[in-house]
Amino acid sequence: MYINEKEIEIRYAETDQMGVVYHANYLVWMEIGRTSLIQELGFTYAGLENEGYISPVIDLSIQYKAAMKYGQKARVRTWVESHGRLRTVYGYEILHTDGTVAATAKSEHVLVIRDSFKPVSLKRVDSKWDDKYREIARVTD
């Protein structure tokens, strides 16, 4: 399985008064991981946007396991969990530097035409990108 890893330095602004990372920041880290994965594969999300497409999140699940705190570093592991004709599911693990799992998550996305929100297949937009996702996805349909 192909996994991208990205290190994040936890900033004070990402924490609450107890110095614990506020839960919504994990979603930002997931986006950073997803963008890093896409770039590492040789593609860009900005390129899709320039062509008139966007990829909204249509479902998200996250399980918090162990709190992260200011001053620590998080390692975000991101992979393509599944990739089908219209939907792509990304998997994530957010880890402490010692390997302790802080959170696990999945986000489901669909590619749409920006102006109409009409779903479109990645294969139609970028067949090389679609082929790469099919190659590395844990599950394809």
Write the topology of this structure:
Layout: E1 4-9, H1 25-40, H2 45-50, E2 53-54, E3 57-64, E4 73-83, E5 87-95, E6 101-110, E7 112-113, H3 122-125, H4 127-136, E8 139-140
Parallel strand pairs: 4-8
Antiparallel strand pairs: 1-4, 2-7, 3-6, 4-5, 5-6
Keywords: Hydrolase
GO molecular function, one term: fatty acyl-CoA hydrolase activity
Organism: Paenisporosarcina cavernae
Query: Quick one: CATH class?
Result: Alpha Beta
| Terminal residue distance | 17 Å
- Unreliable stretches (pLDDT < 50, length at least 5) are none
**CATH superfamily label:** Hotdog Thioesterase
What does this structure look like?
- It comes from Paenisporosarcina cavernae.
- Keywords: Hydrolase.
- The chain is elongated.
- With 141 residues, the protein is an alpha+beta fold.
- Strand 5 (87-95) and strand 6 form a beta hairpin.
- Helices cover 26% and strands 35% of the residues.
- The model has no long low-confidence stretch (mean pLDDT 96).
- It contains 4 helices and 8 strands, in the order E-H-H-E-E-E-E-E-E-H-H-E.
- The protein has one domain (4-140): Thiol Ester Dehydrase, Chain A.
- It has helices at residues 25-40, 45-50, 122-125, 127-136; strands spanning 4-9, 53-54, 57-64, 73-83, 87-95, 101-110, 112-113, 139-140.
- The strands form 2 sheets. Strands 1, 3, 4, 5, 6 and 8 form a 6-stranded mixed beta sheet that branches. A two-stranded antiparallel ribbon has the order 2-7.
